């Protein structure tokens, strides 16, 4: 299955989501590859702690400078996970539709799950990242600007993905990231109900604001390896991707941050 993780703007946690869901799926004995399609602005390698292992990148593969097997990097801790880095020096307009399609077909034959870390926004790199996907996860933060930009992205997916062009359904889900329950209670941040009402798509997960994600990124040890609230959220989202019935916890407004945490993150 080809899953594109995308967003309407940068800085919402798209690459962090890609890394943690890729690990979560690999931990469930699935063969997984995570691809960084953010040409020129890669950071998925740093989140996974694999930046020093890069020799070849996705552009090298598509341009025929190396074989796919030479560019794939095996994760250090989760052996079922491989990583294909973006080029740091090329322009994102270098991506060619036919070459992207050939790459995706080759990866589909080798892996059960192919997770594509899409560039944020609506440039050509984004269109190539979602063109051949089987489903999309739109990462959004509970802010008006993020929701507005994500709405534009959803419209482009519905207009240009190959599945839509072929008359098939293109499953799309919303992942609401960086939630701050205390701000939601004060009505200083959109609630998850507000976000879903605007975007009119099903929810796949809620992830809290988590200061530990910063240190996890800096050390190349993704948060899903820990027991933090966000790690629990990513593990539960992984279960839903595998088709398991995982009930969403109900949000109950209570005074104070501690009282809201239990009801939010699932």
UniProtKB/TrEMBL annotation:
GO terms for biological process: division septum assembly; negative regulation of cell division. One of its GO terms (molecular function) is ATP binding. The keyword Transport does not apply. GO terms for cellular component: cytoplasmic side of plasma membrane; cytosol. Residues 3-223 form the CobQ/CobB/MinD/ParA nucleotide binding domain. InterPro entries: CobQ/CobB/MinD/ParA_Nub-bd_dom, MinD, MinD_FleN, P-loop_NTPase, ParA/MinD_ATPase. Gene3D superfamilies: P-loop containing nucleotide triphosphate hydrolases. Transmembrane segments: none annotated. ATP binds at residues 9-16. Keywords: ATP-binding, Cell cycle, Cell division, Nucleotide-binding, Septation. It holds the Pfam family CbiA. Interacts with MinC and FtsZ. ATPase required for the correct placement of the division site. Cell division inhibitors MinC and MinD act in concert to form an inhibitor capable of blocking formation of the polar Z ring septums. Rapidly oscillates between the poles of the cell to destabilize FtsZ filaments that have formed before they mature into polar Z rings. Belongs to the ParA family. MinD subfamily. This is Septum site-determining protein MinD. The gene is minD.
């Amino acid at each position: 299955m080809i899953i594109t993780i995308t967003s309407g703007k940068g800085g919402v946690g798209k690459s962090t989501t890609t890394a943690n869901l890729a690990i979560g799926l690999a931990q469930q004995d699935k063969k997984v590859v995570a691809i960084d399609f953010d040409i020129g602005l890669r950071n998925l390698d740093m989140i996974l702690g694999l930046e020093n292992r890069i020799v070849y990148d996705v552009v090298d593969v598509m341009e025929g400078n190396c074989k796919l097997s030479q560019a794939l990097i095996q994760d250090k801790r989760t052996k079922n996970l491989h990583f294909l880095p973006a080029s740091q020096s090329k322009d994102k307009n270098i991506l060619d539709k036919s070459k992207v399609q050939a790459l995706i077909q080759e990866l589909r034959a080798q892996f059960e799950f192919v997770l594509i870390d899409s560039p944020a926004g609506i440039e050509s790199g984004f269109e190539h990242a979602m063109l051949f996907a089987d489903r999309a996860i739109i990462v959004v933060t509970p802010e008006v600007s993020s929701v507005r930009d994500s709405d534009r992205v959803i419209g482009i997916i519905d207009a240009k993905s190959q599945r839509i062009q072929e008359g098939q359904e293109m499953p799309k889900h919303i992942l609401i990231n960086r939630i701050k329950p205390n701000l939601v209670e004060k009505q200083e941040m959109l609630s998850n109900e507000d976000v879903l009402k605007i975007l009119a798509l099903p929810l796949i997960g809620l992830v809290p604001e988590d200061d530990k994600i910063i240190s996890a990124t800096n050390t190349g040890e993704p948060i899903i390896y820990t027991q933090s609230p966000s790690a629990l959220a990513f593990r539960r989202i992984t279960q839903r991707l595998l088709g398991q019935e995982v009930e969403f916890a109900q949000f109950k407004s209570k005074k104070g941050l501690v009282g809201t945490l239990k009801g939010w993150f699932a």
